[in-house]
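Crash report, auto-generated. Payload:
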Amino acid sequence: DVKVTQSSRYLVKRTGEKVFLECVQDMDHENMFWYRQDPGLGLRLIYFSYDVKMKEKGDIPEGYSVSREKKERFSLILESASTNQTSMYLCASLTGDHTGELFFGEGSRLTVL
Amino acid sequence: AQSVTQLGSHVSVSEGALVLLRCNYSSSVPPYLFWYVQYPNQGLQLLLKYTTGATLVKGINGFEAEFKKSETSFHLTKPSAHMSDAAEYFCAVTLDTGRRALTFGSGTRLQVQP
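Recovered output after restart:
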């Protein structure tokens, strides 16, 4: 089974802190994604990466950056956390069989005080 | 551009009743369509997907969905609800299975009453 692991399930940070959310997948997938999930808004794409050191902005990239130094690892960075970034963050990787299926991690619930 | 609309943010059914969760998409070309389920405090897992071929798609846990191009719909159904079906359900669409991410609807929370 594909496994996507997000290192932190719950985090509490203070406004202005730098936050790292880590995601690792074990299926050698090329494409990885970070989504943000908020009630009533569904999932919104923050950033995605289709190769090592490659990244593209999604629909809501403001206030976020990403890092993909190794194929299996995709990190989301909040340079200076703000209260409006309190949310559930979901990492996903894309199957290589061209069916479009995403495999998700368990999510990281971030609270910014 | 592609988009997905899920009608009804909350749906409540009795145990044993029919489950119907609605999804309409907007796309200029035939899309690939997905339903995902999210149980509390978990990530999303795939229920079923339509790519090509048969328009009636069967998924896990007794769910199925029918792709209707004329209605631009991909509604999710289950003949008999079980308490364990209580979760949030997301419809999603993509035009490019090679790289681009899925576009998700806003979700429908299903409650199952005993």
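Post-recovery validation: Residues 16 and 26 of chain B are 32 Å apart (CA to CA).
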